[in-house]
Amino acid sequence: MSDWIQIKIRTTSKNADTIAALLEQLGSLAVTYSDAEDSPILEPLPGERRLWPNTDVTGLFDKGTDDKAIVNSLKQILGDHVPVMSVNLEDRDWIRAWMDSFKPLKFGKKLWICPTWCKVPDSDAVTVMLDPGLAFGTGTHPTTSLCLEWLDGLNLLDKTVLDYGCGSGILAIAALKLGAKEAYGVDIDPQALEASEENAKRNGVLDKLTLCDGKKSSSVLTPAPVTVANILCGPLAELEPHIAKLTAQGGMLALSGILTEQAPEIIDAYSKDFNMALSREKDGWALITGQKK
């Protein structure tokens, strides 16, 4: 089996495309972008592409490539201060390796998120079958985990649940599997709504899920007794009037996608319509929960 060579450059979102083009000119067979510092970004609008503030750009080169010469060329062009790293990459069955890296995950007492090629080691589990994708949540991020654990701890029997910013539909589907009679999935990204529909179909709950464009949701949906929104601090603050309108009086609300230090800002933004408090923290991320007044 042959090896490959990876050359990775840490840069900014502004310069990432220029670096990628430079790697291709130097003979890279493929170029990938990845988050350099675990920085959250908003889902892109249709036709839009967003990168992380600090982005790693990685070029893949054939084994016979003179990586030292490429690194020297990059430093001459970009300057010695730019971090450039070269590593050998073992050739292997990458699809199998990727699949093996994902295992069933448990959230709370009974809820599991499981890739379709795995089996949950619990005969009494409430299971959501969901394959990892590039753009939307699968439960591995702390904010999604916090929301799933919150849902697992509620009595959702015969309740309607609103998943605002549904992405993959993971929270809405989990709520339905946990006993909710129906769920709303709201997102501004058509690709998210398509992913939610496909995942709901795979889990046999599509007939109980109503999907809606976020720009039209207030005129289409009725207020829900349980609302969960896993987005980011800025959009959450701006969406307070909209989310309040879509949450029934006395309804339960959970918000995540918020850094712990941002929690006071969100609590303040929602205090007009909700009694809110910091509920839990995980790896620097917060879950804020409360009840509509």
UniProtKB/TrEMBL annotation:
Top-rank taxon: Bacteria
The keyword Transferase belongs to this UniProt entry's keyword annotation: yes
Principal EC category: transferase
EC code: 2.1.1.-
Entry's Gene Ontology BP terms: methylation
Cited Pfam families: PrmA
GO cellular component, one term: cytosol
Entry keywords, A to Z: Cytoplasm, Methyltransferase, Ribonucleoprotein, Ribosomal protein, S-adenosyl-L-methionine, Transferase
Swiss-Prot/TrEMBL catalytic activity: L-lysyl-[protein] + 3 S-adenosyl-L-methionine = N(6),N(6),N(6)-trimethyl-L-lysyl-[protein] + 3 S-adenosyl-L-homocysteine + 3 H(+)
InterPro entries referenced in this protein's UniProt entry, alphabetically: Ribosomal_L11_MeTrfase_PrmA (IPR050078), Ribosomal_PrmA_MeTrfase (IPR004498), SAM-dependent_MTases_sf (IPR029063)
Subcellular location(s) of the protein: Cytoplasm
Gene Ontology molecular function: protein-lysine N-methyltransferase activity
Binding site for S-adenosyl-L-methionine: T144, G165, D187, N230
Transmembrane feature ranges: none
NCBIfam families cross-referenced by the UniProt entry: prmA
Biological role stated in the UniProt entry: Methylates ribosomal protein L11.
Record-stated family: Belongs to the methyltransferase superfamily. PrmA family.
PANTHER family, A to Z: ELECTRON TRANSFER FLAVOPROTEIN BETA SUBUNIT LYSINE METHYLTRANSFERASE
Protein's UniProt name: Ribosomal protein L11 methyltransferase
